[in-house]
Amino acid sequence: MKMFYKRALLLLALFLLPWVTINNLAYAANWDVKADLRERYQSFDNFNFDSGNNKNTWEIDSRLYLKAKADFGNGLTLFLQPQAVSIQNHAVVAGSQNFSQADLLQAYLQYNTGDFAIRLGRQQLVYGDQRLLGHLGWKDVARTFDGVKVMFKQDAWKFDVFAVHPSDIVNMTPKTATPQGSALITWEDRRLIGAYGTYSLNPKTGIDTYFINWSHTQQAAVGKGRNVNTYGLRGFGKWKGIDATAEAVFQSGDWNNTVKQSASAFALKTGYNFDTWKTRIGIEYDFSPGDAKTDPKTHKNFVFPFHTNHALYGEMDRFSWANMKDLSLSFKTKPINPLTLKANIHFLSLDKAQGDWLNVAGAGTLYPGLASYTQTKAGTEIDLKVVYKTPFMKNLKLVGLYGIFNPGAAVAERNPSGKADTARFGYLIANYVF
């Protein structure tokens, strides 16, 4: 923790230096500066669904964001977001490990003129329901990209085009053999290009359409020759008390040099909003056909390694938007002004019993598929969340969550021990913006 604050002070000095320099060079610049400090405790209990070999873990995380936006006039702005992160992690299989990191989460120049804008530098991509592209703010280091984005907006139309490279700033993932941690996924020799367009009938109703290509060169450490096209359509709307979203996504291209990619994923959700206590009840169905591995020349699992699935298919991150079926019910209410209560229940299944059960990132296999498997019932997850914005410190937000996953027959079939024991997850967050 001491090292974290040293790094935070170093970041602050690095942050103030360009502020002073640029401000001296450009007297007309107007600066807006904010800071965001988050402390989080979280624990994972029995995530392998085997109480006889419970690989429980806990973490205490600290994260500091510094945000500064400078307006130089004539349409030119600068945005800087340095961050410092410290994680104290304890796992049964790895013991206690400490990690710290300081870097730039975002740093870009933007030029606006009329309906046109261009952004150059390190930036986040946030679109739609963030099923594919989002900031992943839940993670301590979040997700960001290096490159260029061109934006056009006129009347009801909004259109973005981007060409970026995933920023390789994530070295916080604990590893038994590597106490200092290592990246969950290596972004070396990968690129992401795409276009995202929105037509709005009104501020709350419209249609999104998009095309995204991600590829790995022949020099990539993983996935040589990968070249996957992802294209989709998303409709969203709100009429009186009803809100609804529907999204369909398809993939084609090359999974690697010898295997083609052919996959799809779908989502449909709706809810009704009551005036009483600002209450919403909702229902959602998410589906993606699985890959039974009957055709070795075609990869049929929908995989998008930059997506932000956390909490979309359960807070416990046991599922990706691939080889899955998820029927979920949600409830949200605000009985008093500072307090929000949320509850979600997910009824989770695999689409193909023989297919891989993929984790939240879509890049790791929770359980590999086998031709002999017959069970698809994954289990039921219940998540209860409390959000409290303290009236005596209006910039402080407290969040608590408790999640429980009751596994089904698919877990018992896949676990080497045959166990299908309940898993639990919880966290407490204190977030202060100043």
What separation lies between the terminal Cα atoms? 21 Å
The arrangement of helices and strands along the chain is HEEEEEEEEEEEEEEEEEEEEEEEHE
Shape: globular
Low-confidence stretches: 1-26, 172-185
Percent of residues in beta strands?
Answer: over 45%
Q: How much is the average pLDDT?
A: 86
CA radius of gyration: 22 Å
Helix content: under 10%
In DSSP terms (H or I, runs of 4 or more residues), the helix count works out at 2
What's the total count of β strands?
24
Sheet with most strands: 18 strands, antiparallel, barrel
Question: Helix/strand-derived class?
Answer: mainly beta
Question: Characteristics of this structure?
Answer:
18-stranded antiparallel barrel; two-stranded antiparallel sheet; mainly beta; globular; disordered N terminus; 2 helices; 434 residues
Topology:
Blueprint lengths: L1 H24 L4 E16 L11 E17 L2 E16 L3 E19 L2 E8 L21 E10 L2 E10 L6 E3 L2 E5 L7 E13 L2 E12 L10 E13 L2 E13 L5 E2 L1 E12 L4 E10 L9 E2 L24 E13 L2 E11 L7 E2 L6 E3 L9 E13 L6 E12 L1 H6 L8 E11 L1
Task: Walk me through what this model shows.
Mean pLDDT is 86; it is low at 1-26 and 172-185. The longest helix has 24 residues, at 2-25. The chain has two helices and 24 strands. With 434 residues, the chain is mainly β. The chain has an 18-stranded antiparallel barrel.
Concise synopsis of the structure shown:
With 434 residues, the protein is mainly beta.
